[in-house]
Amino acid sequence: MAEHPGRALERNERWKAISSSLPITQNENGNGYFTILHGFRYDDFNRKGWMNLTSLSRTFDSTAIYRLPMFGDSNPALGHFVAGMSYQISKELYKMANLNIKIALRIRLANFGKSSIVLYHILEDASSGKILASMFRTLVKVSMDTRRPEPLVPEERRHYEVLLSGSEELAAPRFRLPSVDRAECFSCELVVRNIELDSYHHVNYSMYLEYSAECAAQAAASGYYSKLKGDICAFCVKKASTSHLREARAGEKLTVITWEEPADPFVLYFIVVNKDTDIFHAMFEYYQPVEFSNL
User: Fold this and answer.
1) Is 266 left (phi over 0), alpha (psi -120 to 50) or beta?
2) Separation between Cα atoms, residue 276 and residue 221, nearest integer Å
3) Quick check: helix, strand or coil at residue 47?
4) Burial class for 276, CB neighbours closer than 10 Å (0-12, 13-18, 19+)
5) Strand runs (DSSP E) across 75-180, as ranges?
6) H or E segment to which residue 156 belongs
7) The pTM is what?
């Protein structure tokens, strides 16, 4: 059900007020922004003391997307749904992340398509300039009534062309889930909680990372994986790619499926199924433990 236009506008204004608390500076060429964040929170770290992927994803959200020019459309009948994400996480992030680190968060327009825009985020150590992590985020413009993609109008396309002028277009890595005999995979069931919904009244995109991590935790604890055994929190994610295919809402029972890449047991795949339909695909690649033996 579509959100009432008046309530949608009120919600957008609240988000703008929240985002205005961050000192955001526009890039010189006008195609993006950056801000400075002062440390991570205690609950950004898992029980082994490592930064977790869901918290990192939410940290990228601190770029306050409602202040970016590519989100200038205030039409409550339209929205921007996350279609996919691609993360790269350096060893330096796991080594340097703490409650007091000063980090620079950058965001720019990478490219755009018929109904989509791609944003590129970079997380840097503000003191040294070292890149700690990066993320591509693909967003699709949708009708809030039909929940189907809506093409960018000519004015939007011209606007994005101006933002990209003088900048290199960047392409997000492509992700395609390999085929598998699902009967041989590990699976678990989860029920969507109301608090996991976002302002679009569907499961927030970051929650699917948690669903995948929960399934991986159960699989590792059971001994299902050949290398990633025991407490999954002891292992650090190096890369991750996601694809959001359908929506899920409160009260729905989801099945999460996982298996490892036969050629590389440190690569895991995930599928979230709702009523016999795939709604989410993901790949997590982990660092091998030896790479963290000296941290």
Assistant:
1) alpha
2) 26
3) coil
4) exposed
5) 78-89, 102-112, 116-125, 131-143
6) helix 154-164
7) 0.90
